[in-house]
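I'm curious: can you give me some protein's one-letter sequence along with its backbone structure tokens because I've never seen that pairing?
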Amino acid sequence: MDSDAIKETAYRWGADICGVAPVERFAGAPEGFNPKDIYRACKSVLVFAKKLPHACLDAESCVPYTRANDLVTKQVDEAAFTISLALERNGINSVIIPSDDPYEYWDTERTHGRGILSLRHAGHLAGLGYLGKNTLLINDTLGNMMQIGALLLDHELEGDPVIDRSCPEECALCIDGCPVNALDGITVDQYKCRPLSVYKNEKGYVLKKCFACRKICPGSRGRGTT
């Protein structure tokens, strides 16, 4: 199977967008977080995403956005599982990267977690978009309203062009609009962010109580809104 056939498989099983990054593009990944640190046979990374409904950002309650995020995360993981099996039937082995949990790295003092592979960086390297100052991947069609998944393939594929773009230099809406000053335009301070983005109420429900950086972004709906 070539790159187009593999991407068509991803679309068939639920991807809204997808792209390919040769493993060599990850040379700058931190030690321990390179695709080859996860799967030594990896030669290419297939990255895909599914869209979240944009209107959930406009709800007065955080519950609709929380549920939409939970559902799409589950759908992405299920799609990755199905795509992996479909590729295996065609002689291509792949290792699934979770769309969110679980992960191994955890700094208790800073309440800082790190996925086994940075999916937003993988998405950028696979040509799916550029990284915003809010640290979110921004795609021309889906904006920042997407959940990302990936598979590490033991198959050498041609990569998609990397998008050479960034947020307008003068735009600082997400940085200025963060209620806890967790953004600096490059990264997010999870110690400040987590109390609102992973908020547990008295009933024990985990809610995404704040998504201001996603909502306020002019690129939230994609190209033409920036």
